[in-house]
Amino acid sequence: TRQLAALSDQVEEARGKLILIGDHYQLPEIEAGGLFHVLSRRLPAAELTENLRQRQEWERTALAQLRVGLVDRAVEMYRQHRRLVIGQNRDDILSQAVDDWHQHVVETGDLADALLLAHDNKTVADLNELARGHIAASGGLDGPVLQIANRVFQMGDRVLCLTNRSRLGVLNGDLATVVNVDPGPRSMTVRVDRDLETRDLPDWYLDEGHLDYGYALTGHKAQGVTVGRTFAVIGEGTNQEWAYVAMSRGRVANTAYMICPEGVEQCTHLSHQPRGDPLGVAKSGLHRSRRQSAAIEFGFSPP
């Protein structure tokens, strides 16, 4: 809200025109927000309604339902089409997601066509380690090794750039594939997905911690990404907006791997999900919306 107010003031002072573009059903603002949703209802707005990304009609329908909070209907459609895996053991669910991801990579021969997703950084880190282990074991990594902090990189690795550096031609969120590693000057060359051009990353960029593995991403990092298939781990902390973003990144298919907390069947509180219903417990977080509300939504007026 504060950033939008400052930007609006500058545009007004310059006698310019401000056009807002976005989707309030996706991940909400990190700080105080909610104005985009309000303004899109109060001001003239053009809305794009046709889904051109997902190829399957049933998945377009499921996403439309998930988008507006019809979680039960959406989840049932994913279950019917075998795009839903549920389990109580976190390690088993992560292993299953990575195994399915690797099978798709082997079948397509394209590491950039598949993406693992998770809500929290710890799960993303675990998925990255598991995924890289699969690629290394199958001979997908080659050449010299470059150690950067607690990460080891080789030719063939999938990486994620974490900071904008215009002189290097990389942006925060760029996904790329390592095409060369030079241990001498401690540098590497990567091919960036968005334009398939190569970039040279020097030692100072690497040593400052601006590079991570790119096999798995958080929902926030993946919000602008499109791939063939996604494999999304849904656990504690997920919500409706996060699930909508995660389950809409893949063109061909998107699979959800839901972690049901262990021991939940011992809970008998009437307000909780019934015992023996792991699906109900696993999807409970998807009923929660994190959309922010602007003060003007409540009709406040000065005294």
Task: Give the helices and strands, then pairings.
Elements: H1 2-13, H2 35-42, H3 57-67, H4 71-80, E1 84-87, H5 90-108, E2 114-118, H6 121-137, E3 142-148, E4 151-155, E5 158-161, E6 175-182, E7 187-192, E8 198-201, H7 203-207, E9 211-213, E10 216-218, E11 227-234, H8 240-246, E12 250-259, H9 278-282
Parallel strand pairs: 1-12, 2-10, 2-11, 11-12
Antiparallel strand pairs: 3-4, 5-6, 5-9, 6-7, 7-8
Helix pairs in contact: 3-4, 5-6
Fold and architecture overview:
The protein is α/β, with parallel strands linked by helices. Helix content is 31%, strand content 22%. The protein has helices at 2-13, 35-42, 57-67, 71-80, 90-108, 121-137, 203-207, 240-246, 278-282; strands at residues 84-87, 114-118, 142-148, 151-155, 158-161, 175-182, 187-192, 198-201, 211-213, 216-218, 227-234, 250-259. Strand 7 and strand 8 form a beta hairpin. Helix 5 (90-108) crosses helix 6.
